[in-house]
Amino acid sequence: MKIVILGPAHPYRGGLASIMETMAREYQRRGDEVKIYTFSLQYPSLLFPGKSQTVDTPAPTDLHIERVMNTCNPINWIVLGNRLRKEAPDMILMKYWTPFMAPCFGTICRIARRNGVTKVICQIDNVEPHEHHITDKPFNHYYLGAVDGFVYMSDQVGGELKAYSDAPAIFSPHPMFSNFGNRVERTEACKKLGLDPAYNYLLFFGLIREYKGLDILLEAFKSVKLDNVKLIVAGEFYESKEKYEPLFTALGDRVILHDRFIADADVKYYFSTADALVLPYRTATQSGVTQIAYNFFTPMIVTDVGGLPEIVPDDRVGYVAPATVDGIIEAIESLYQGDNLERFRKNIVKERKRFSWSTMCDKIVEVLNMCR
Length: 372
What we know:
This protein is α/β, with parallel strands linked by helices and 372 residues long. 38% of the residues lie in helices and 18% in strands.
């Protein structure tokens, strides 16, 4: 097939770019012709809460990546839509995670599909965003109505999608990230991060936003009765840091804060150091961070929201807890009882087989065939 992947890719940073590049490689491995058209402008600086949208690492040499899409320029949308209409790929494969992208994505796709050949398939992360705006529903209708078929990664998203589209849609769980390398020896990982290997560590990892519940975890950790356990918070603040400062102060040296975007090359050290990943989310669809944990055989504590219990079976690879302070306290203290950590690590070996990129790409092709 001729495939155009439309969405984040190098030099844009983060999990979304990794996902699109990994799928491109999988389809290339199968013999398909793949191009990635990524952003020349993704977010205006005023709307981007982080420090940088891009990385300085060299572009991958095994992928065809062009920076051609400007989310704020309607003329660009028309030009790119007409380019795709003329190129007539068999499939435009997209990622959708926020209604902000809908005017750009929807316009490009509506024009491209006029050739009667190209089908638009969307691997959808979210339908309803975590932070709501008055434009969410009309924007969702505009883009989702321009898509021929969907692959969703949690039952919650699949249910929400029905309000916007009756196009073919099938489930496939979020694949496991493998681009961050392999687990390293714990002593090496601790040394790399400047941490004392005599302590045990729990890990909160990822961009810090209100819905992710870091404050719940910090409040809980104040009451955790485990003297030898510390908490690593690794990620960039996408909201004000001020509300967390009293909690960091109260915890003192029991919490280690690395408040920055964690480079891909360093991810393995955090997950190799930690006994478990803790995701105290207030709301969720699914989480790519759980798939990083699976890659590094790291047990997890997640909350009973969205699709997280689908990905993390309770008392098998970790715990599913209520999204409350007491719920997180109980899960953390249970983690260190008996042989629970070792049992969870052994179960991850079996559980991680569910999450392959080959399966995801098969499902995308299955949906494409349903649209023809």
